[in-house]
Write a structure and sequence with these properties.
Elements lengths: L1 H9 L7 E6 L5 E6 L7 E3 L8 H4 L11 H9 L6
Length: 82
């Protein structure tokens, strides 16, 4: 028993790698191997490549916190323009 604990502490023991079901935001499902949970668990994604702007190229909004963006643009907006 102490030998197993020492192996885990050293990182020489491999994690349990098993099949899980992944559910995308649009409801599609697929099976994959993972160290998440235990055999047969379901991983429901909140953000995935189908919906996140980083993958879809969706429109990003710049938040203007306390007028910082507009203040920057008024100060430096004309740089490079002739």
């Amino acid at each position: 028993m102490a030998k197993d604990a020492a192996a885990k502490a050293k990182g020489t023991e491999h994690p349990d790698y098993h099949f899980i079901k992944v559910v995308m935001t649009d409801g599609t499902e697929y099976r994959t191997r993972s160290t998440y949970g235990k055999e047969g668990d379901t991983l429901n994604l909140d953000i995935d490549p189908l919906t996140h702007p980083a993958w879809t190229g969706g429109e990003q909004k710049m938040l203007d916190r306390a007028g910082r963006v507009s203040r920057f643009n008024s100060r430096f907006g004309n740089i490079g323009k002739r």
